[in-house]
Design goal:
The protein contains 3 helices and 12 strands, in the order H-H-H-E-E-E-E-E-E-E-E-E-E-E-E. The protein has about 220 residues and is α+β, with helices and mostly antiparallel strands. Strands 3, 4, 5, 6, 7, 8, 9, 10, 11 and 12 form a 10-stranded mixed β-sheet that branches. Strand 10 and strand 11 form a beta hairpin. It is elongated, with a radius of gyration of 19 Å. About 25% of the residues are buried.
């Protein structure tokens, strides 16, 4: 069961959401200190880490404005469209090098915007997008240049389409996921292409397909 937010954590979340609404980008730790009247940056950092553990935010510690809100509690609940970061390309064909193995959005990430009623994220999962490169999923009507929206999660049901990371190869690919004992079959949706078989321990699911935006 999810832990309740402390009063300080609620105040920080409320400030972050209002700041994003007003500025269209997230605050720095110093902004949060000033806005919430907290003198210590370490106190803010501690509470941001707790919020991340509970799934309310994600953080990219490599950039100063690296906060992403996953579970809004206030100003962002019904504010404007969903802004989903595009984290690079994903192979619909032979696997390609994962653009960011830690699955953080790059600092210069582009975004795709969707009306909230089209795709509301679940209460504890972040959304991200990747642009398709290749033709292995064309029978599922996913073509090169399309943008795929993923729910950031590491489990899925048999046969679901996922972003699969091949650990040893440091590569990622878009395929249907079929566990088969100690191996996994990554199945393309193209009758001209063969499936990829891998050791189960070498595969990590990075996200499940939620939606496809067609490239015109």
């Amino acid at each position: 069961m999810a832990r309740s937010l402390s009063n300080r954590q609620k105040a920080i979340m409320t400030f972050i959401e209002k700041y994003i609404v007003e500025h269209d980008y997230p605050p720095t730790i110093r902004d949060i200190c000033d806005g919430c009247k907290i003198s210590s940056t370490s106190v803010v950092d501690y509470n941001l880490n707790r919020l991340q553990e509970m799934g309310y935010i994600s953080r990219n510690s490599k950039v100063s404005r690296g906060i992403m809100v996953n579970r809004p509690i206030g100003a962002l609940l019904d504010h404007g469209p969903l802004r989903i970061p595009i984290w690079g390309e994903i192979a619909a064909g032979d696997p390609i090098a994962v653009p960011n193995a830690e699955m953080y959005p790059p600092e210069d990430a582009g975004y795709v915007e969707l009306a909230r009623e089209m795709l509301r994220p679940s209460s504890d999962k972040q959304l991200f997008a990747m642009r398709v490169k290749g033709r292995s999923m064309i029978d599922a009507f996913i073509k090169e240049g399309d943008v795929v929206i993923f729910s950031n999660q590491n489990v899925c049901e048999r046969g679901e389409m996922v972003a699969a990371w091949l650990k040893e190869e440091q590569q990622t690919t878009l395929k249907r996921f079929y566990p088969e004992g100690r191996k996994v079959r990554l199945q393309p949706e193209n009758t001209d292409m063969e499936p990829i078989y891998c050791e189960a321990k070498n595969i990590e699911i990075k996200g499940k397909v939620m939606m496809v935006i067609r490239h015109c």
